[in-house]
Amino acid sequence: MGSAYLVRRLASAAITILLIVLINFLLFRAMPGSPERIILRGVPNVTLERLEATRERWGLNEPLFPDQFVSFLQATASGDLGFSFVARGQTVGEVLAQRIWPTLILFGLGELVAIVVGLALGAYSGWRRGGPIDFVGNGVSLILYSAPYFLLGMILLLIFATNLGWFPTFGMLTAGATYSSPVDRLVDFLSHLALPLATVALGLIGQYAIVMRSSIIETSSDDYVTTARGMGLKDSRVLRHHALPNAMLPTVTLVAINLGYVVAGAITVEVVFNWPGLGTLTVEALTARDYPVLQGVFLLLSVSVVLANLAADMVYGVLDPRVRT
Amino acid sequence: MASPLRARVFRTLAALLLLTALLVPGSAPALAADGEPLVLRAGTDQDLQVLNPFNSVVVADFEVYTLNYDTLVGWGQNIEPVEGFAQSWEQSADGLTWTFNIRPGMLWSDGEPATAEDARWTYQLVLDGQETTNGYLGEGYLDGYLTNAGVTSVEAPDAQTLVVTTEFPNTLLLQAYVPILPKHIWSQYTIEQIGDVTAEGFFQNEPPVVGTGPYVAVEWTPGEFIRFARNDNYWGQQGAADEVILQHFASPDTMVQALRTGEIDYVRGVNGDQFDALEGVEDIATVEGFANGYTELSFNTGGTKEGYGGSTPALSDVAFRDALGYAIDKQALVDAVLNGHGVPGDTIIPPFHTRWHVAPDTPRTFDIEEAKRRLQAAGYELNGDNRLLDKEGNPITLRLTWPDSESENGSIAPFLVEWFGELGIEVDAAVTEEGKLIEDVTGPPAGPANYDIYMWGWVGDPDPTSLLNFFRTEEIGGSSDSYYSNPDYDQMFLDQRAESDEAARKQILDDMQQLVYNEAPYHILYYDSELHAYRTDKFANWQNQPADTGTPLFGYGPWGYTQLTAASDEPSPAPSAAVPSPGATSGGEATPAPSGGDDDAAASSGSNTILLVAGIAALVAVLAIGLVMMRRRSGVQEEE
After folding, report:
1. CB pairs under 8 A between A and B
2. Which of A53, A168, A276 is opposite residue B263, by nearest beta carbon?
3. Residues B479, A170: C-beta atoms closer than 8 Å
């Protein structure tokens, strides 16, 4: 991979992240209502002196530019995102750290399942266009693509948890359970994971299958595929070695771009299944006006979207030599 | 690269298959086998982020510490004083000194002796909180219990005696919701580390918590759940639950489903629709209790006076505010906004306080014509455009607002716009961000008092004093948001606070409620209901607190938890009839709905079936569309 390409990508990602930090700073300072009132929310008998003392203590009397912005930049750079209003005594960093793993596990696995199943389904449907798999697969893909996450989640929950009782309705582990062995713990975890994971994966499978299918159909009429067939190669070999690598390109972009939407989906899936990840955290922080935590979540999510796109650019470079210059 | 990729894909697929295989057999974990602890799981929509009592804000926070710790005086079924950390108490003849007798031989959950010195240390800590840079401890909610009672000093002459001196005679000390903390744990921390979340080494009070309550927290996943284990050193009656788990839910819908499946035993924080859907479900009882609070329409009674930002002097006129009270159909609001789960409001002490609430002598009814008559009698005229004019001849336009955190208030607004509109008053309704609103409605000199009328609610304490406080003149600039000022009221507030005789105090409270009702700085729109539901197949003897108007859990103190029995211990036929609970026999608001019969169960599973069928129908429909689309495609590729 050309180093110029790499440097260009890295530079543009760095600039984007800086802009995000600036927007994050401005956005939360443009909110109506005064921060000292939020800090003192509900405290009876707030006096003028107390308000003033609070403003002083939190640096709210300093001018926004440059003083507040500079200290914000310094703090953000050093990983200090401040204290959560709601999780008393915990820093935003600590709060995020507790919640990031459940989200990573759920959506990491969900993406993985969706990529494998979705791409396979899409590739096969496209290759055997008009066949029974294509017929069923495309129909199902359309439904899944169009169903909102919360609806899909709620339907799965009603059927498999409430009615059939196969899976628990909420959480990541049974609260307060004692496990006789790590295997028990794993089983408990997996049974909690099943429905939210299915929701995430099903939602994504539809999209990936549809894109992959059309991409394969387009590729399958290309000259080099015809040539490969003409050379008498086995059909499956033509698909895997000739058609697939080229058809993968649009899907890589889709997966990367999707990360942003996955976050939006995360909120609803996690809320439906009470999954203790960043999605539920965002909703809770919004309702409780926990601005420092919201600020932290925004920063984390937007930076990860930038990084995912950076990663996609890299993968693209590997897959398609033409973009490496 | 094709071959390794293929191998990787294969390995990944194999791993996933293995995971799936692990999932399918057994599926839901069978953890509640014999010999397992009997666990009470209660769901709440509130965050569980607090174990240090001084940071308590929401109801769930208070529930947490009331399980961990005793208050000096406890709470009985009807919120009456019962023994707590102290066994008994007496007030001196001049009413200024309280002597509490601390139970001998009492132990903290870690085995250390619990004595009067712990109580003294805790109260002194709260008093010292006034001297910190913040002026209060933590979130500032607990300090008022001692300051309102006028506590000046606290001493522990011996291990069994606590002496508290107050500035004026009163009985509020018996209602102090301040947990008694173990000195041997908490005194290791500075007052800043206890009260200030940003202090270096802030004390979160992480489990295992040491307390004297019936249960102590042993496990905590912030924001998710807190698990409490039975405190073997507890001095009083304990309930059947070996463990209590308070579980947070981000979505009340999911919480309700978890109650249906039996994964949790109790829910608090469901809305009217969800509550109605649970009524009659087998093994589930619903209970509708009064909330200790109300939702009000507040007037800027300062009007256009110096320092106040009202838009018309009419706001300061009792007759104007009184007339508007006839143009509010409170029952319609209860029906439309609360699904009927509430009662129309009147006086400022909600009916939750059965001992203190009084209905108005001259209640206002919904009568637009009467409102018009009263406005006319008070000298308010309509102009040619049918607009009501204030005494300065200007058409009255009232700005109406409410906090963005309260969606119910937003639903009320259109009603008020219409009703007041019929009187010729234009209402300019707009929501305000909560933080900004708090600033806007703060009175002079601390704030601009910049509003005309606004909606919000208050939640009370076990004692009504806090709900009476914000109509006092001295609270203008503080907690007063109507800027109501009446010397008679101010005097009565002090009189009732110092009155130890219940009947005499009740008389004063009656007068105060009537006065505020008549002068109408607030129109109390409604008293909300607390909507709870619980399962009857695991625990029995659910008791409401108070018996007539309350709910079994999330009340005051751990009383409801200590009354629970295991459902399996009940005689098998008709378990609900075996132990007549006051709640079940009292009738009225708080009666738990009896478990439904087969009809109800069929109805509920019926609705689920409909959902299922609808889902399948949708699936088929989309498949059909897919089919049509596919048929239209040309150039179908040949099969291999």
Report:
1. 241
2. A168
3. no
By Cβ distance, the residue of A98, A139, A270 closest to B222 is A98
Structure-token pair, residue B300: 């800027």
Return d(Cα A46, Cα A42) in angstroms, integer: 9
Look-up of token digits 């870690």:
B110
Contact B512, B529 (CB under 8 A): no
Q: How far apart are CA A308 and CA A156, in angstroms?
A: 29
The verdict on a CB contact (< 8 Å) between B12 and A163 is no
The verdict on A162 touching B (C-beta cutoff 8 Å) is: yes
If pLDDT is split at 50, 70 and 90, which confidence band does A261 have? low
User: Phi-psi bin for B389: left (phi > 0), alpha (psi -120 to 50), beta?
Assistant: beta
Q: Name the residue among A303, A307, A281, A306 with its Cα closest to residue A294.
A: A281
Q: Which residue of A has its CA nearest to B13?
A: A116
Contact B260 A162 (CB under 8 A): yes
Q: Which residue of B has its CA nearest to A240?
A: B2
Question: CB contact, 8 Å: A139 with chain B?
Answer: yes
> Over the stretch B521-531, which tens digit does the pLDDT of each residue have?
999 999 999 99
Which helix (H) or strand (E) covers residue B534, if one does?
A: strand B522-535
> How do strand B426-429 and strand B342-344 relate by DSSP bridges?
unpaired
Is B29's CB within 8 Å of A184's CB? yes
For residue range A70-114, list pLDDT tens digits in order: 888 888 888 888 888 778 778 898 889 888 899 888 988 988 898
Q: Which residues of B touch A88 (CB under 8 A)?
A: 49-50, 52, 55, 138-139, 197, 204
**DSSP H or E segment with residue B65:** helix B59-68
- Count the Cβ atoms, other than its own, within 10 Å of residue A69: 17
Report whether B64 contacts B226 (CB < 8 A).
yes
Residue A214 contacts B, CB cutoff 8 Å: no
Q: If contacts are CB pairs under 8 Å, which of residues 248-307 in chain A contact chain B? A: 270-274, 276, 280-281, 283-284, 287-289
Is residue B34 pLDDT above 80, yes or no?
no
Contacts of B254 in chain A (CB under 8 A): 157, 169-170, 271-274
Alpha-carbon torsion angle B455, B479, B448, B527, nearest 10: 10
Identify whether the C-beta of residue B400 lies closer than 8 Å to the C-beta of residue B414: no
Name the region of B207 (left: φ>0; alpha: ψ -120 to 50; beta: rest): beta
Amino acid letter, B212 = T
pLDDT at A40 over 70: no
Which residues make beta-bridge pairs with B523?
B297
Chain A residues touching residue B203 (CB < 8 angstroms): 89
**Contact criterion met (CB below 8 Å) for B388 and B382:** yes
Would you say B303 and B604 are in contact if contact means Cβ atoms under 8 Å apart? no
Considering only residues B47 and B416, tell me which one the structure prediction assigns the higher pLDDT.
Answer: B416
Q: For residues A280-317, b (16+ Cβ closer than 10 Å) or e, as one string?
A: bbbbbbeebbbbbbbbbbbbbbbbbbbebbbbbbebbb
Is there a contact between B202 and A89 if contact means CB atoms under 8 Å apart?
Answer: yes
Closest CA to A87 of B61, B57, B223: B223
